[in-house]
Amino acid sequence: MRRLQIAALCLTAALCLTACTSGAASFTDATSAGPRSVTLITHDSFDVSKDVLREFERTSGIDVEVVPAGDAGQVVNRAILTAGDPEADVLFGIDDNLLHDALDAEVFVPYASPRLDVVPDELELDPEHRVTPIDRGDVCVNVDGAAYSSGDLEAPKGLGDLAMEPYASNLVVENPATSTPGLAFLLATIARYGDPGFEDFWAELRSNGVTVVDGWEQAYFGEFSGAGGGEGTHPLVVSYATSPVAEVVFAEGTAPENAVLEDTCYRQIEFAGILAGTEHEAEARELIDFLLSRPFQEDIPLRMFVFPVVTDAVLPAVFSDHAVVPEAPLALDPATVAANRRDWVERWTDIVLR
Questions:
Q1: Residue 114: is the preceding peptide bond cis (ω within 30°)?
Q2: Residues 274-299: pLDDT tens digits?
Q3: CATH second-level architecture of 138-267+324-352?
Q4: Which of 19, 39, 107, 185 could form a disulfide with 294 if both were Cys (CB 3.0 to 4.6 A apart)?
Q5: Cα→Cα distances 266→48, 154, 245, 279, 301, Å
């Protein structure tokens, strides 16, 4: 989940060891005489348990350097600017909405991990395997249930309600030019209302007092009234379908009764890829295998609050009990997004911010 930057929750060593022995990709103890290393460039929300990463380093003999480099858009732009002479060996965090820009710039080299056998075909968007799906999630409007519990006003039922007068000044969104959740929500409105129909919807949102901020953290923790420990005043926020799960996990006392508007949800897939020009391609391939291994995939939910992509991963009970999985998330063809994204964002800017 592009995700929740709140206090980290470490899975136990026992869970990691169990996962390592129950169908994970095979990492044999290193026998190489020389040092081996690999650099992973990521967005700032990448997170992995230390025990899980150290076990991979121990068994593979590869030292992993993780380099956070801003949000997903910034990471991808850096990779495009340095294509063929990369700053790292592997990139994690490119999503399907940014994918075609990087593929067109020949940022990645192909690699088909043997672990793709347990990844659903519909998540593999590049038939040449230049990128590998690692996690999936949904960007959705989150609702502060307590704000609507008095009975004076019912919570909105769907996307169209957000532009109605009773919900004036209730909604905070992220700028799609600076935020991947913000972009996903813009795309959700295009998927629902079409082009140019989305323009009318956003004009109505602006008239209805929508608040726009630069990024997710500011929106969720600074503006959303349903964030645990936050002081925001907006009962509606663009966040993730798993945000209510995080509130349960990290609640001090009773968790907020937040909900998700399922008909606002837009599916996102995050990928990793080996950067063209790397001098450590063998190590980079092993790192991709690790990102698809059960230890890492089962670590994902409670570190980044997104879903694993492999079918043999076991979800934590709190996900099974509280996570929302939209039955029919909104979506657009990635090639269509690539061809129109800049134009859509410019038109959105003209409508909402100027």
A1: no
A2: 999 999 999 999 999 999 999 999 99
A3: 3-Layer(aba) Sandwich (3.40)
A4: 19
A5: 25, 24, 18, 37, 18
